[in-house]
Amino acid sequence: MKEVKCPNCGASIKIESEYQSTVFCDYCDSSFYLPDLYKKKQTNPQVEQSSYTIDLSGYQKTAAKASSIVISVIAVFVMILVGGIVAFILTMSNTGSGGMFGESQPSFIKKVLTFGEEGSGQGYFTDVRSVGVGRDGDIFIAGYSDRRIQRFNSQGEFEKLWLVDEDIYIQDMEVDEQNQVYIVGNGKIYVYDGESGEFLGFFQSGEENYFIDDIAFDPQGKIWAIVRGENLIRFDRQGKPEWFKEGLFENTTGDSELDGHLAIDGYGNIYVNGTFNSVVLKYSSQGEYVNRFGGDGDEPGQFRAMQKVAVDNQGRVYVSDFRGIQIFDENGRYLDIIKHKGVAFGMTVDDKNYLYSVNGTSLIKYKIEGNP
């Protein structure tokens, strides 16, 4: 056992532990810190970590693998947080028959169809937040928490209903040219046949902790996905990850993002918006940053509680928030606003340039005509 001399009285003091930081002198009633040469440095217990490499067809990403349990808890917390915010907006914005801000459209936007009311039967809706359109104009609508996928014809007449197999919250939905329905939930993409409702399989980001939040198809039919709020992955036609870019918002605005959404135009340009950053980021078809627009505020072109983003066949960008659907040109210049009944939690544009939106209890279909 080591001993040190008291700096006050010179008495010998025994060191009881090799990790001891201070000692007390019984002779002069003083205490002092031990010099480093008399003590062993205390180290924190090490959590075993393994490294992994995600092979994205030439793009290599190596990182420390965190506990999947911790990541899952964080993902659930974020889902509850975002879901709670959306539920609050839904409750507030749907007060009154015309929503909090009433309804109106710009001259080049014409409302041509609306249907739906709250309920649990066929053709009724409970907190619907996702919409997709099939090859024949069929409309697919998904409930956020009841796992119901409903299909309607182009006139809004009910055709079919099925349930997603797993107990998930449906965060997004897209429909491809084969009428296959892609459902985002529980960090994965589930694929169903749009005609029969048959489950065809699922795929994911390639790493268990990279939860998928939102998806979109590019002009080549490849799927792009937002993962963990602000990272971007591109899949090939077989569902294999082939390209990855991380930290879209943090690298641009300096703030990370928990709830990102995306849309892709006819040239393959990518638009990503973030609920908590209140901006839209534009990237080229190669994933290179182009510009940004928006911001938090109440002026035209600014956002409150931003939701979805969509792009029409003329390259105009539609962004929904608490006040309606704001419209921008391809460079982010503000054009106009659709004062929407409730909040457009889900939006899509079909190949005939119709804009579809869902507000929790109904669908609204708009015809986009000409220029503003």
Domains (count): 2
Sheet with the most strands: spatial strand order: 7-30-29-28
What is the CA–CA distance across the termini? 86 Å
Q: Please identify the structural class as seen in this structure.
A: mainly beta
Q: Report the β-strand fraction as a percent range.
A: 35-45%
Number of strands: 30
Regarding CATH, which class of the largest domain? Mainly Beta
CATH topology of the largest domain, which one? Neuraminidase
Describe the structure.
The protein has 372 residues and is mostly beta strands. It folds into two domains: 3-38; 68-368, 6 Propeller (Neuraminidase), CATH 2.120.10. Helices cover 7% and strands 41% of the residues. The protein has one helix and 30 strands. The chain has one helix at residues 68-93; strands at residues 3-5, 12-14, 22-25, 30-33, 51-56, 59-64, 109-115, 128-133, 139-143, 148-152, 158-163, 172-175, 180-185, 188-193, 199-203, 212-217, 223-227, 231-235, 241-245, 260-264, 270-274, 279-283, 289-294, 309-311, 317-321, 324-328, 334-338, 346-349, 354-358, 363-368. The protein has a four-stranded antiparallel beta sheet with strand order 7-30-29-28, with no helix packed on it. Strands 8-9-10-11 form a four-stranded antiparallel beta sheet, with no helix packed on it. Strands 12-13-14-15 form a four-stranded antiparallel beta sheet, with no helix packed on it. Strand 14 and strand 15 (199-203) form a beta hairpin.
